[in-house]
Structure formats: C-alpha cells, structure tokens
C-alpha cells in the first residue's frame, strides 16, 4: 500500500472529520469541521498533515509549537489518527517521521493511560515515557 503525506487544505475538513470518528471523536457538523480546520491552518504555531491513498484521506497528524518561558520549548503531537483499515501499514509512523524531519526539534506527545495501543505505538517509534501528570480542566 502506497500513501503520500502532504499539508492539509481546508477542503480536506470533511474527510478528516470522517476518519477522526474511528477513535471516538465526535461527529462535527460540516460548518464546525471547516471552521476548526481553518483555525488550525492559519496560526503559525499549528501544523496539520494528512496521509492519502488514491486521493482518500486515511490519516492525519496535528502538531503545535509550545514555547516555554522557563523550560525547553517543544513541538507537541496534539492528535494522530489513522483509519482502522490502514493501521499497522506504516501510515502513523510515516506521519510522525514526516513532522520529525520537518521540524528537527524536541517532540512530545500525551496519551490517555487507557489507550494502551497508542502508548505501545509511540514507544515502538522511539518516544520515551517522561512522566505521569494530572490534567486539570475548568
């Protein structure tokens, strides 16, 4: 299976929305999908790249730059989704490798403790568990 990686376009919003539902993201209205993607495309600290097979989006990665005042700045993987039928085919690894090459910098990813498959994936491609933390929302 051959896939290509490219920068996202606003016209990709609906296919991204469809692929995202495979790991439990909520279905967005068409307007919401376009609005969210448009916001992420424009600010310079965000990047979204997609994986395509024959013109169909089969995965995406969203990263953002996290500048820090008193500690090392880094890029963070905010989301990585691959359609179920393309998992274990190298798509996720290709997306991560692409952004690692694009931005030769420190990268970080957070994943829910219940997402064992995600943790195993990131460990298998060289990410190390750095710490366990609490996330507080308000």
Structure description:
Helices cover 30% and strands 25% of the residues. It is of the alpha+beta class. The chain has a single domain, classed as 3-Layer(aba) Sandwich (Aminopeptidase), CATH 3.40.630.30. Strands 1-2-3-4-5 form a five-stranded mixed β-sheet, sandwiched between helices. A hairpin with a 7-residue loop joins strand 3 and strand 4. Helix 1 packs across helix 2 (30-41). The longest helix is centred in the first third of the chain and has 12 residues, at 30-41. The model has no long low-confidence stretch (mean pLDDT 89).
Would you summarize the structure shown here?
The protein is 30% helix and 25% strand.
Provide the fold topology:
Layout: E1 4-7, H1 13-20, H2 30-41, E2 46-53, E3 56-66, E4 74-82, H3 91-102, E5 107-109, H4 116-124
Parallel strand pairs: 4-5
Antiparallel strand pairs: 1-2, 2-3, 3-4
How big is the Rg?
A: 15 Å
Q: Give the SSE order as H and E letters.
A: EHHEEEHEH
Whole-number average pLDDT?
89
CATH domain topology: Aminopeptidase
Structural class: alpha+beta
**Count of DSSP strands:** 5
State the helical fraction: 25-40%
Give the termini distance in whole angstroms: 44 Å
CATH architecture: 3-Layer(aba) Sandwich
Task: Classify the beta-strand content into a percent band.
Answer: 25-35%
Unreliable spans are none
Tell me the number of structural domains: 1
Q: Profile the largest sheet.
A: 5 strands, mixed
The CATH homologous superfamily is named: Gcn5-related N-acetyltransferase (GNAT)
Shape: globular
- Treating each run of at least 4 consecutive H or I residues as one helix, how many helices? 4
């Amino acid at each position: 299976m051959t896939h290509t990686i490219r920068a996202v376009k606003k016209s990709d919003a609906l296919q991204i929305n469809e692929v995202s539902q495979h790991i439990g993201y909520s279905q967005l209205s068409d307007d919401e999908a376009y609005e969210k993607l448009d916001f992420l495309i424009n600010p310079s600290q965000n990047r979204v790249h997609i994986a395509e097979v024959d013109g169909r989006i089969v995965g995406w990665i969203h990263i953002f730059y996290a500048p820090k005042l008193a500690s090392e700045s880094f890029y963070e993987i905010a989301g990585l989704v691959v359609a179920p039928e393309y998992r274990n085919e190298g798509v996720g690894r290709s997306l991560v490798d692409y952004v690692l090459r694009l931005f030769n910098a420190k990268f970080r990813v957070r994943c829910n403790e219940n997402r064992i498959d995600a943790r195993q994936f990131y460990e298998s491609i060289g990410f190390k568990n750095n710490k366990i933390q609490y996330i507080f929302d308000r």
